[in-house]
Design brief:
Length: 419
């Protein structure tokens, strides 16, 4: 097992390169099943979650070559069959359920165990299943397995009760080869969905309405293999913005789309942090005194739930009272207990956390309870007085490419050790 040891108090300087978005890459890898051809994914982030979906595709018969240095992966799905994926693999990551849409589209049936993932809520899949049923599929739930089967998928109008990211992606992937037109209303608008739609369109799909809450998909007969470079990771970029702010530093972030990060920048600006965009580069200046703020997580373009815990670390050491309300996941405050070990003054009241900023965190032994909670602890550790030890960092490895090296290279005192 690995852990991070961080000596707080360093000022950061220099520049950091952002990797491609995990949440774009996972559905894109699943979507390669649809073409039964060879696809090349460039600049792929070699993360634990990416290896999980790669292993899932391999167990279905895909041939995958990985070049770890260039980050290029070649996926040949011509010999994929509707065989079995081990439930251990599926339970490791909720994103593995994204295989369902492409599999039923290509083979008319698939059976998979209920998905796992971060421990941040119950995370049902009812909206995914509602979409598959609307497209004409039968859904059976049996002993922890979900079985979806159909003679053929036929386009339909589907209204999502909530703009679920995964359900929008899964239904879109199921619909691209269905007969006729599918309309997904109240679709999620996250940039990663737009990226998946662009990937599918380059393969030959006909999807319009990208970036809006209404996606229109006209079914096509076949898709072709392509070469594709996914978008940059807005959550990784946001995490480094907070790293600059919490250490009162000025750094440059390369690989960022101004539009994608708007909700995070708006709140950080409100606190007093300076931003200068130049194309896909950004200079963040966190050297000013900061003000407390209130935040409510919302579906995109609202403030992302995936940045909530990192913001809590920052607000935890900004003088005054801030309130964070989590509306997306019901159990996403597990980092609060760990931040309290570092001296934070935070009270939870239902779905809100009331934060009274302290002057400095104290280094402590803490545990990453999920991916973004782990990132929040790194950020608090960078600010803290003394040494912070973070265990269970496999959660962090699920979604950040070599975060310790990226931070070390801009001046942080952080190391990975075995224990
Ligand atoms: C994706 C992201 C995750 C992010 C989340 C919200 C990936 C791989 N993961 O997760 O990082 O935190 O979006 O931005 O892209 N829900 C239902 N029924 C469903 C599906 C979802 O009730 O069938 C609920 C969930 O319980 C949750 C909310 O909808 O409360 C949002 O979930 P969803 O948008 O589906 O998130 P994921 O796709 O799992």
């Amino acid at each position: 097992m690995d852990k991070f040891i961080i000596k707080g108090g360093s000022t950061l300087r220099g520049e950091v390169n952002i990797s491609s978005a995990k949440n774009a890459v996972l559905p894109i890898i699943a979507a390669t099943i649809l073409c039964g051809d060879k696809c090349v994914i460039k600049n792929c982030p070699m993360l634990l979650d990416v290896y999980v979906i790669i292993d899932a595709l391999k167990s279905l018969g895909a041939k995958i070559d990985i070049n770890k240095i260039s980050g290029e992966i070649v996926i040949d799905t011509s010999e994929v069959s509707d065989s079995h994926i081990s439930s251990d693999l599926v339970r490791k990551m909720r994103g593995s359920f994204l295989i369902m849409g492409p599999m039923i589209s290509r083979f008319g049936q698939f059976k998979i165990s209920f998905p796992g993932g971060c421990n941040i809520g119950t995370r049902p899949i009812d909206l995914h299943l509602k979409g598959f049923k609307a497209l004409g599929a039968d859904v059976k739930l049996d002993h922890g397995y979900v079985e979806v089967s159909t003679r053929k998928l036929v386009g339909a109008r589907i209204y999502l009760d909530f703009p679920s990211v995964g359900a929008t992606e899964n239904i879109m992937m199921a619909a691209v080869l269905a007969e006729g037109e599918t309309i997904i209303e109240n679709a999620a608008e996250e940039p990663e969905i737009g990226d998946l739609a662009s990937f599918l369109n380059e393969m030959g799909a006909k999807i319009t309405g990208i970036g809006t809450d209404t996606l229109r998909i006209i079914g096509v007969k076949t898709l072709n293999g392509i070469s594709y470079k996914p978008i940059y990771d807005r959550i990784e970029a946001g995490t480094f913005m907070i790293a600059a702010a919490i250490t009162k530093s000025k750094i440059k972030i390369n690989g960022i789309y101004k539009d994608h990060i708007k909700p995070v920048v708006a709140k950080l600006r409100e606190m007093g942090i300076g931003f200068q965009f130049r194309g896909q580069e950004l200079i963040v200046d966190g050297r000013n005194d900061l003000k407390p703020i209130d935040i409510k997580t919302m579906p995109y373009p609202g403030f992302p739930t995936d940045m909530q815990s990192q913001m809590m670390s920052l607000l935890g050491c900004v003088y005054g009272t801030s309130v964070i309300t989590e509306t997306i996941f019901e159990n996403r405050f597990m980092h609060v207990l760990e931040l309290k070990r570092m001296g934070a003054n935070i009270k939870i009241d239902g779905r809100s956390a009331v934060i009274e900023g302290i002057s400095k965190f104290n280094g402590a032994e803490v545990k990453a309870t999920d991916l973004r909670a782990g990132a929040a602890l790194i950020l608090a550790g960078l600010e803290a007085d003394g040494e912070t030890e973070i265990s269970d960092i496999y959660h962090i490895d699920r979604g950040y490419v070599e975060i310790e090296n990226k931070l070390y290279n801009i001046g942080a005192k952080i190391q990975r050790v075995k224990y």
